[in-house]
Amino acid sequence: MVRSCLYYAPIDTVVMCAKGHLLGSRGAPVEVPIMKIRELKIFFILIAMTAGGLFSSEARGTSPVSGGFSNSRSSAVDSAIAAVQVPPLWTRGGVFAGSDGIGQAGRMSVDLSGNIAIVSGPAFGRDLAVTSYTSEGVLRWTRTIIPLAGTFVGDWIVSSPNGDITALGRSLTSSGLTSHVVVVHYSSDGTFQWRVDSTSTILTVGRLLVDAGGNVYFSYNSILYKYSPAGVRLWSASTSVRDAAASISPDGADVILAGALGGNWSVTAFDTGTGTRRWLTTSAEGTAASDLVVDAERIYVAGQGTTGVGTPAITQWLTVIAYDRVTGAKIWRTDKRPSDSTGAAGGRIARALDGSLVVTGHATRGFLDWYTAALNANGTVRWEAVRDGGLNTDEIPSGIIAMANGTTVVTGRGGPTLPGGFWPGYTVGYGPTGVLLWEGRSQQATVWASALPNGDVCATGGYDALITCFRPGGIFTPLEPVAVMTVTPSSGTSPLNVAFNGSGSIAGGSPIVSWAWDFGDGSTGSGAQTSHIYTTPGTYIASLTVTDMLGVTSLPVNRSILVNAPNVEAPSAPTAVGRTPTSIRLAWTNGATVQSEVRIERCRGSNCADFAEVAVVAGTATGYINIGLTPGTYRYRVRAFNSPIFSAYSNIAKAATVKKSN
């Protein structure tokens, strides 16, 4: 939508209108779409940086590529100037390369408060380590666990909405094979909660996931497991998919997995509540299905696709395929590679707030170089970019982030190398048109990156769990304000009073003047800080958008709120008395909470334990006569129910039938 301009500029000048237009020569208003405004802001910022001497005079080998589309503006800007070199804001780890350190960094996660967690191994020779820092780099805690056998390496780590941390590690034999998998769970303050170890020989391991309620999902040997926040196994299911990519749908209803084997991509969906498979689709697409993201309607899988058969006809691509979330039907497939490459592959994919996709991988151009592309939700390409550090060896990205301000952040092993030929890690930011805006260097190759709520970007990789954090906003001003929200609490029983805080939102070109809240249940609010009471159990997606003094509005930021039904108090003081040769009378006292039903269970024998439900009575009932019994001794227990919550069981009451009626 094009907005009207509110005033005219002097003759022969160009100014920015408050509503996102340009005023051109002779004072005529020039209507420019919002994306063009963003590009022009980049252009003005780059001019200012060039004048201030912020750019190196030697351009790095990084430029958008054609590969079947044209983007002359991006190419011209990117070939004329190099990216801003962002210095580290802070760095930790990377001190001890041997058994004195906490091992090679696996991956990292960030909670809603900005606390950082890294999984690494082998720590101190063979352990698995989890280390937590504040957003300012202050060490919060480090915890380690010992393997059952072999030597641990860190693999995946996820922060729950309440700040708890779950990590997955693999134990390797002396020959480098995975002998078992461990999942360990800590509270936000580092208190150990539970640990689960695999028992079978491990062939493949998938991604670790945590849903809005804190439930944990992971897979190995093509079996998917779900554990409660307390570490209780809820269900497991055979997936028929080689362990690789996984994600949970935005509404928390589905867990999606994807993998490739023998040139076929397989994608499957399971009901998170029951572990029941919804659908499975398999088709000949290529050699690797590496990562996936999910929105309300579709699943997007990235990997290495192939076309053609045999040498030299076969061609390898960075491939993205969209599937229907309900049926699993394939909607579209996009294959991309640079025009000067012999092949490409997709590694990681992220979804931007506007629904577009960004995917990174590598292109084969003699050696492997970074290759990143942005796609619209219909599969058409917005831009492509190759980053070549000028090395005669392989450079491979390992992580990607779609930032709220429209920047795409990519991290991984890249060049140029450090003195002595050591591999550094590079973390870079691309603008909305694929222009390389900034670069930050880590002293060791990076394996993962995360964005903090304040807009900082941190990357981890290397020995002693090295982490390096950057503040690109200090050099490149966001194109629009960035909404940042915290919610306290993010889950609980109804009625749930939630405090919302958007005061940490980041201004773009002018101060933020309004905060617009959508609480996800049809209610809205305003102000930097507000609160809302959720009265109905369910999962709600709350969102915040902010607007600055110039009328520029941020992209929305979302948080999930889980509202549980109130707890149900268990019935107490049950009694059982024999009434006739074939009946027993029960009585109990109900709790103070609301309940719709009381459910009665029974087993036969003085010490029996095989209880089975025999009756359901109204929630107000305090007694029941069990008739039609075979003479003998019976044990009873009762529990209350108020959908969908059961209470705990009551104590057990025991009685025997009598020879004569009482």
Structural description of this entry:
The structure is a single chain. This protein is mainly beta and 662 residues long. The protein is built from two helices and 53 strands. The strands form 13 sheets. Strands 4-30-29-28-27 form a five-stranded antiparallel β-sheet. It starts with 14 loop residues before the first strand and ends in a 6-residue tail after the last strand.
Q: What brief labels describe this structure?
A:
single chain; 662 residues; mainly beta; 5-stranded antiparallel β-sheet; 5-stranded mixed β-sheet; 53 strands; 50% strand; globular; disordered N terminus
Summed over residues and divided by their number, the pLDDT gives a mean of 85
- Class from secondary-structure proportions: mainly beta
| Bulk shape | globular
The main sheet orders its strands as 4-30-29-28-27
Please count the helical segments: 2
What's the total number of strands? 53
Please tell me how large the radius of gyration is.
29 Å
How large a portion of the residues is in β-strands, by DSSP E?
A: over 45%
Q: Whole-Å distance between the termini?
A: 83 Å
Largest sheet: 5 strands, antiparallel
- The low-confidence parts are 1-81
The proportion of residues forming helix, as a percent range, comes to under 10%
